[in-house]
């Protein structure tokens, strides 16, 4: 399954030689566990969780609730695995995720969810707001995402 994220793709493409794993609500547990198993999320191997957001028509950055909740879901799993070593930003994302009783309802009701539904993409919103539906951890390798081994 591929759900395009133009802003996320731009960020990944500009990351240089950094190791990039793609995470979302769909694979949050898998990504969090993979990061912890590979020693990420510690002082020795810090990790950046980037809630990429969207772009307004004028090119300005538009925060996206679904991206914040996805980063928060990954941060929650990572914190469970490596302890309370997260940055204040990652901790805030985790708290936002944990404080959202119905993630699917929140994503459906947020501005980007409503915009996509109005554009005929209700099924995409429904799928993208599923928590831990997928166990694949996509890694950026030579310009393409492949499943982590």
TrEMBL record:
InterPro entries: ComB-like (IPR005238), ComB-like_sf (IPR036702). It comes from Streptomyces ovatisporus. It comes from the Bacteria. This is Probable 2-phosphosulfolactate phosphatase. The lineage of its organism: Bacteria, Bacillati, Actinomycetota, Actinomycetes, Kitasatosporales.
